[in-house]
Design a protein that fits this description.
Two copies of one chain form a homodimer.
Chain A (H helix, E strand, L loop, with lengths): L4 H8 L3 H8 L7 H13 L6 H8 L4 E6 L4 H18 L2 E6 L4 H11 L5 E5 L5 H7 L6 E4 L9 E5 L1 H14 L5 E5 L5 H17 L7 E3 L4 H13 L6 E4 L2 H13 L9 E6 L12 E4 L2 H17 L8 E4 L2 E4 L13 E3 L8
Parallel strand pairs in A: 1-2, 1-3, 3-4, 4-5, 5-11, 6-7, 6-8, 8-9, 9-10, 12-13
Antiparallel strand pairs in A: 10-12
Helix pairs in contact in A: 1-2, 1-3, 2-3, 5-12, 8-9, 10-11
The structure holds a DNA duplex.
Chain lengths: 349, 349
DNA sequence: CTGAAAGCGCTTACAG
DNA sequence: CTGAAAGCGCTTACAG
């Protein structure tokens, strides 16, 4: 039904080989024939068939992107970063979200063979064993936020632990000693690292304090419930550190609803620095994760692995987080090397 | 380098035809041979090559998604809706964002041939001419938010005009007569329709009033600037209607910075009902667009067109918008058939 | 500079 | 039930 290279060749009075060479800009074609072929291609509105090209060239110009979820600003920012870098490289994106189900990831991995040149994988719940079983060495891959050493693949990760430590120290320095935590899913690697950073930093500063850790799932309603829980407490913490911004925002809403003042009565801080963090009131103090960068860096690394598979080794890149102090923690906005200062709800400079 | 059907056939002692039949579950294979083949496939960790399969079956199980941009919650919600429906259908998504550049869209369209079974296209700046030139009838396509009659393709669109009319009437009913508007890009079809709805509804209600229309670009900073402009005005409007939520939020920030009270001094309302609209203070009154539904419906329509190309005709689906009254317009939350009532910053029931 | 031919990895009539 | 063969639409040595 659709027009093929054969028809172009026929119309131009040349062989398909010559058409192929002309359209791919190979040098060994007379300018005259080349021009004629290109003209015929235009007239016939010919476009080469991608699958056929890929089959013989072994290149697809597309990258498979496996994400755990499609929800919220974290993922849209990540995709944006990946997309921006991909455009520059002339690469396209084959997207797949597995909704936390590892068997979905397996299926997606399968369907991607022969359709992508490489894989970008973010699966906070995947284990080293899973990677070992499912990832063939034949296909270049870069992991995003995987546990260190999970696989022999390059990995780009955020310093989840370090960011949590930074935040605890900041809260403590500004006089908040009784800090509660709202955790993320405990089968989620990012969540676990953030919790670990919180625990270790706090117990170093306040060895005798047993912090309250409330269970959350990274979604806003669980943060809302945590906020309600805090309201009901006989002895309230003076700060709530949520493992991500969406839960911190939920917490903020619950406290506002109950008339608890933030930051006067209790500080509330988050993690990620999603765009919305600037817009809530009080504006959210948080740990800024360079989400779009994470995507960009991962894609660039993948491209270099595709070009030279030897580059895989030792390629674990850790992206630094940054404390962003806004209104919700009630701290004066100290300026030092660890703090990026933004006015409450302020606009980036 | 990677293992092929030939090697499986060899290892299982059968022909490639039989392997193909076994792995595709065709009936005409002995259970015994089938089992043996499947076992060999597992041992060899064989996965069929996608491009080769697509070349012969003419099916790719993937849908091309052309988006103008990758920025903001509108697009992440849209992708989420598309993705959810695609998963159910067992389809994958080949993503491409054209960043408003039509030549990018052309290039993306080209690369998609042979790689997708159909196209979902959202291009607020594309004209009927563009669609006519670039879209081959051979490839099923569904347009999202295209001008009515732009192309002979099925189209799923939001009632941009109607939503703007609803909002103007609501503001007017609650006593706001001097309404200013912050427009979107004037080469953007959605933006143009929203502006048209605003102008027509307002001039019907206040024939003598010449509303102020400020130029925006759908991004927050342009809303911020519009807010500053309002602040500086000698004679302030009593409401600002921004063509989307991000600009309304920018406007809110500018007014807050200048000490202008919302909604007491001026009402501010938006359009889209992105998730963030609930979280700003005052919470944003807005026109709710079923963004994720838009994606879901578009994908489902595309699937039906792929299955039966005759279904294209007359398939222009218009999705209804809904007024969402929150704190930023200062209206009492009247309950009637046109209003969905939510508490200020409230959580959906 | 150009063409005939082989081959990429599959699927599917067609025989048997 | 199984296999040999043709073919999907390209690209690329290999000749000339």
């Amino acid at each position: 039904m659709s027009i093929t290279i054969k028809e172009v060749a026929l119309a131009a009075g040349v062989s398909v080989a010559t058409v192929s060479r002309a359209m791919n800009g190979h040098a060994n074609v007379t300018p005259a024939t080349s021009a004629r072929i290109l003209e015929v291609m235009r007239e016939l509105r010919y476009t080469p068939h991608g699958a056929a090209q890929s089959l013989v060239t072994r290149r697809t110009q597309t990258i498979g992107v496996l994400l755990p979820d499609m929800h919220g600003e974290f993922f849209s920012e990540l995709i944006r970063g990946i997309d921006a870098a991909a455009r520059i490289q002339g690469l396209h994106l084959l997207l797949s979200s597995s909704h936390g189900d590892l068997s979905d990831t397996t299926a997606a991995l399968k369907m991607m063979r022969g359709r992508v040149d490489g894989l970008l994988i973010m699966s906070p719940t995947a284990t080293a064993q899973f990677y070992a079983e499912q990832l063939h060495e034949s296909l270049p891959a870069v992991l995003i936020n995987a546990p260190a050493g999970a696989a022999p693949h390059a990995c780009v990760a955020v310093d989840n632990y370090g960011g949590a430590v930074q935040m605890v120290r900041h809260l403590h320095r500004s006089g908040r000693k009784r800090i509660a935590f709202v955790s993320g899913p405990n089968n989620n690697h990012d969540a676990v690292e953030r919790l670990r950073g919180f625990r270790e930093a706090l117990s170093a500063l306040e060895p005798d304090y047993q912090p309250l850790v409330m269970h959350g799932d990274f979604n806003e309603p669980s943060g809302f419930r945590a906020g309600q829980q805090v309201v009901a407490l006989a002895e309230r913490p003076d700060a709530v550190f949520a493992a991500n911004d969406m839960m911190a925002i939920g917490c903020l809403l619950a406290l506002a609803e109950a008339g608890v003042r933030v930051p006067e009565d209790v500080a509330v801080v988050g993690y990620d620095n999603i765009p919305t963090a600037r817009f809530v009131r009080p504006a959210l103090t948080t740990v800024s994760v360079p989400i779009a960068d994470l995507g960009t860096v991962a894609l660039e690394r993948l491209v270099s692995v595709i070009e030279d598979p030897a580059k895989v080794q030792g390629q674990e890149t850790l992206l630094r987080t940054q404390l962003v102090v806004r209104g919700s923690c009630g701290a004066s906005r100290v300026s030092n090397s660890n703090l990026r200062v933004l006015g409450s709800g302020g606009r980036p400079a």
